[in-house]
Each structure stands twice: as structure tokens, then as C-alpha cells.
């Protein structure tokens, strides 16, 4: 059985755009990698539910107030390169994260350096269409350099698809918005702000497959924040935290980035950039609380992102600052990782299995 993944990269660090990796799932081998689209700093990518389109932020520098952009591509069915459909302004600086809603009609985007979060309508050909909603964030946090202003770092949809949650690193908040999947509107009247401890720096989040829990990687405090999620009201509460590497560490050395669960909701994985590892936790079925199991080196530096393949047998990590791609086998009974292979690639930043 074979599969493939798309990989974004930082062109400011030597990458050339978006790559494709062809993978032998049975033997855990990366058969080849190749550039499929030249692009400027496509640091985060997302796929359309149909699999026919791919979207990438173009995280240009915020120096001088430069606006970022978002690019749309057709993936094709022949295994060839990506075809650029269009490129549109992100309506903010340093776009850092994006997702397509479940209906495939709208693109939700977080601009890290503001002014906030945006929603774009998608055209029938997959192109990025007009802006239909934007909410500007305000506030700050106590960190003297990282939290002077808001920093929306990610936007994700709750399981029902009618609420969206934004992790704002700059204000130490997870912000809930009502979301209308028909119109793409984010509602300011539906805002609920949940504050985490000062100096937390919430970054990326993921819902448990059951829909009962939300996990958020806190970049500055090197923790995982765990919330109970009420699917009837759309509210989160019951905040508790766990060290991102299983032990309390200096945040400048750990800096968790990505967080994922397996499809069955038994295991939680966290990438830690300073510690250069993937941390594995068992998830308590009743409470959702994570229990630390092990840290596994990614064999490189700064694992900014990772993904599990659709079969749940492989994990592919992107080492941004050296070491390229690292592929691991996942033990089905324990979730433990075993190194499969590594592949050089310049400044990989995001991984998406097709």
C-alpha cells in the first residue's frame, strides 16, 4: 500500500515551496520527494475535504506591515504537480494557520500578527473567493516580547461545525466563536473567552475524536491544556494542564508546536521543538486526561509539525531547522513510535497526508 503527503516549507530558510513525498506504508519507506509548487513561505497547508484542492498560507515577513497571502492549488489526479488556481491577500500580517470547513465552502484563516481571523468563500473551481467575515483581536499578555499584541495562532472547528476556536498566543486565551457554515460568518455575539494561565501562549489545538475534550499546545509554558467540551452548548471548561514532555521544563527549550490524537482517541502526540522529540501520552477514556508514556527523538532539529497517515500506522514529522522528514511506525496496541526512515528536505514546516 502506498500513500503520499504534501509538505510546506520555509523559503527564507532554503525551501523552495510545496513538496510531495511518496510513501510505502508497508515497509515504512519514503520512496521519493519532489517539489510540486514553487511558493513563498508556504508554512502551513490544508486540504479540501474532496482532496481536489490544497491551500497554503504565504507567511511573508511582517516587517513594514507587509500583508500575507493565501494560495489555492488543484491537486490533480495523476500524481503530478500542483496547479495554482489563484493567490489572494490574507487580509492580515503573517498568516499562520488555515482550515477548510467540513462542507468545503469556506476557508478559515488566522493572521498571527493581526489583525485577527478571517473567513473566505471558496469558488466552485477551488479558488479563494471574497472575504465574508473578519474579527480583529485585541489585548496582550505579560511576556515582554512575545505577548505585546494579540497573536491568533490557529483556528479549528468544533465537531458539530457551528463553533470555531482560536488559540491566541498573545493574550493567553482560547476564544470561541459561533460559526455559520452556510454563510461563513463568525459571530462576535457568540464570543466566549477562556483564559489560560499567564505566560501560557496557546498555539495549536485538536479535539478528541469523541468530541468530549479539547487539547491545546501551550508554546510559552511548555504545557498541554486539556478542556472538557460540552457538545450541546459549545462551551469549554474544566481546564487542567500537563507538561508537554512529561516533565516540567524550561519553555525556551521545549516549545511544543503540534498536537494530535490517533483516530480511536487512545493516544495523544505532541511535537516539542526545543527538546526535538515527539511525546506520547495515553488518554484516559473517561476523563480525557493524558498520562505520559515516552519521548522519541525526531532525529533532527525543531519538529514544527507532524501528521498521522490515514491508516494510523505511520507518523511523519517535519524538522524545520535540520534533519528533514522523519517517518515512524506506530505500534497499534501501544501507540509507541519506532523510527522507519529519514529523508533530507530543506526547512519543512507542515505535513498533510492526502
UniProtKB/TrEMBL annotation:
Cross-referenced Gene3D superfamilies: YVTN repeat-like/Quinoprotein amine dehydrogenase
UniProt keyword Cell membrane present: no
Pfam families in alphabetical order: Lactonase
InterPro entries cross-referenced by the UniProt entry: Cycloisomerase_2, Haem_d1_sf, Lactonase_7-beta_prop, WD40/YVTN_repeat-like_dom_sf
GO BP: any one term: glucose metabolic process
Taxonomic superkingdom: Bacteria
An example molecular function term from Gene Ontology annotations: 6-phosphogluconolactonase activity
Keywords: Carbohydrate metabolism, Glucose metabolism
Family matches, as PANTHER family: 6-PHOSPHOGLUCONOLACTONASE, 6-PHOSPHOGLUCONOLACTONASE-RELATED
Family assignment from sequence similarity: Belongs to the cycloisomerase 2 family.
Protein name: 6-phosphogluconolactonase
Lineage of origin: Bacteria, Pseudomonadati, Verrucomicrobiota, Opitutia, Opitutales
